[in-house]
Amino acid sequence: MKKSVDVLVIGGSAAGIAAATTGKAFYADKSFMVVRKEREAVVPCGIPYIFGTLKGVEQNVIPNAHIEGAGVELVIDEVVSLDRETKTALTANGLEISFDKVVIATGSQPRVPGWLKGRDLQNVFTIPKDRNYLADVRERIEPCEKIVIIGGGFIGVEMADELIKKGKQITLVEVLPHVLSLAFDSDLSLKAEGILKERGVTLRTNEKVLALEGEGGAVRRVMLEGGDTLQADAVILAMGYAPNVALAEKAGMKLNELGAIKVDEYMRTADKDVFAVGDCAEKFSFITRIVKGLMLASTAVSEARIAGMNLFGLSRLRTFGGTIAIFSTAIGGITFAAAGVTEDLARERGFDVVSAGFEGIDKHPKTMPGTAAQFVKLIVNRESGLVLGGAVTGGVSAGELINVIGVIIESKMTINELLTMQFGTHPLLTGPPTGYPLLKAAEAVEIKLRHLDRCVCGAPEKAG
C-alpha cells in the first residue's frame, strides 16, 4: 500500500505532535501525517505521577484529538526505513509513504549501562515513554515493599517522592554528592534532600552501584561499590536517557558527539528537507554555547514549533538559539525550579558571576490562606550585569515564575533592566509589591555588585 503526503512526522509524542500541528497551522494547504507505534502517547513529564498521585496510566495520556482536530492524519505503525534520496519511508505493516518534507521526532530511550551486572533480572525496571510497559511496571511494583531507585535526577527524585506516598520503603542511590545537582547548586539540592528525608526516603549520595544480585531470577540485592548491600524487591533504573536515533543512523544521517542528530538553528539536518526535533535532536546551551545532552519536553516542543514554522520557508526571526534549560518539579509539595546556568557551572565555564537570593511570600499579606514562602536566587555576570541563571522554590506559583526568569535570560536582560520592570501584583496571586521576591533578589544582586565595585575601586594600588 502506498500513500503520499507533503509532510511526514515520525514519532508522535510532544515534539512530533507540536511539529505537525504547528506546521499545519502555518501551511494549511499542505497534508501532514504523524506515524507512531503507540495508539496512546503518555504525557512525558507526568510519568512518575502514575505511580502515586494518579490512579493509572490512562490518566496520563495525550488526547489524539490534538492531532486529528488540527487536520493531521494519525497512523499507528512504525517507520522501519527512510530513504532520503527517493523521499520514501517504509513501515512495519508494509505502508510505503512518499513525502516532500520529513520531521524525525523519535525521542529517547532509557540508558541501561552495559557494565551493570544483573540488569536483566526480573523486577528491574526502566522508565520509558511506553504506555503498556509503564502499566505493567505499575502493576508489578504494587506488591513490592523495598524499592531501590538508581539515579538522583528528576525522574529518580520524582519516582521516590511518589512511591513513598504508597508506603513503600524507598532508597535512592546517586553517584554525585547531591540529588538534582545538574539542575541546582548545592544550597537548593540540600533543601530537596532534606524534604525527601523528612518524607522517609533513604538517600545514599556519593555512592556508586556495583551490581544487582537476585534469587530465582528476580532481583533481591543492590551491591554498592563501598561494600554495602541494599535489600530490594524491585529496582528502578533512572540513569538518564539516550537519543533514539537508530532510524536516522540507518538512513545515513550525521550524529554529534553525544549521539544526537545534528541540526541547524532551523532544526534542519544536512539534508534540507529532513528536520529533527526533540530528544533525538542535537542541543546546545543558550548561555555557554556548548553541546548538551539535555532532554526536556518544553525544549522539545520549542524546537518542534520552530521546525513546523520553517518547513516551507525559512525565517531569521524563527530560529532556535539554544536551550535555556528550564526545570521545575515538586518534592513533598514544595516547588523547585531553575533556568539558565547554575552558579557552579557558570564559574566552571569561565564566567565571573555574582549571586544573591531573597525569601518572601507568594501571596500577601502572609495571613492569606494558602500563602507559601517563596525563595528566588539570581546568577548574574559581574562584568555585564546580564542575568545568566536563576532558581525558585516555594508554592505552585514558582513553576510560572521560573518561566518569567527564562524570558529574562533569553531576552538578555541586565539586572538593571530587571529592576525597572513593571510587575502586576494581587493579594491572592502574587507576593506584595513592596517585597516581590524576584525584584528583591535582583536588588540583593545589585547591592552586591555595587559593594564589589567599591572594593575594587577603593583598593590601594600595589607598589611598583
Automatic annotation (TrEMBL):
<dbReference type="InterPro" id="IPR023753">
    <property type="entry name" value="FAD/NAD-binding_dom"/>
</dbReference>
<keyword id="KW-0274">FAD</keyword>
<dbReference type="Pfam" id="PF02852">
    <property type="entry name" value="Pyr_redox_dim"/>
</dbReference>
<dbReference type="Pfam" id="PF07992">
    <property type="entry name" value="Pyr_redox_2"/>
</dbReference>
<feature type="domain" description="Pyridine nucleotide-disulphide oxidoreductase dimerisation">
    <location>
        <begin position="333"/>
        <end position="430"/>
    </location>
</feature>
<comment type="similarity">
    <text>Belongs to the class-III pyridine nucleotide-disulfide oxidoreductase family.</text>
</comment>
<dbReference type="GO" id="GO:0016491">
    <property type="term" value="F:oxidoreductase activity"/>
</dbReference>
<keyword id="KW-0560">Oxidoreductase</keyword>
<protein>
    <submittedName>
        <fullName>Pyridine nucleotide-disulfide oxidoreductase</fullName>
    </submittedName>
</protein>
<dbReference type="InterPro" id="IPR036188">
    <property type="entry name" value="FAD/NAD-bd_sf"/>
</dbReference>
<dbReference type="InterPro" id="IPR050260">
    <property type="entry name" value="FAD-bd_OxRdtase"/>
</dbReference>
<keyword id="KW-0285">Flavoprotein</keyword>
<feature type="domain" description="FAD/NAD(P)-binding">
    <location>
        <begin position="6"/>
        <end position="304"/>
    </location>
</feature>
<keyword id="KW-0676">Redox-active center</keyword>
<dbReference type="InterPro" id="IPR016156">
    <property type="entry name" value="FAD/NAD-linked_Rdtase_dimer_sf"/>
</dbReference>
<dbReference type="InterPro" id="IPR004099">
    <property type="entry name" value="Pyr_nucl-diS_OxRdtase_dimer"/>
</dbReference>
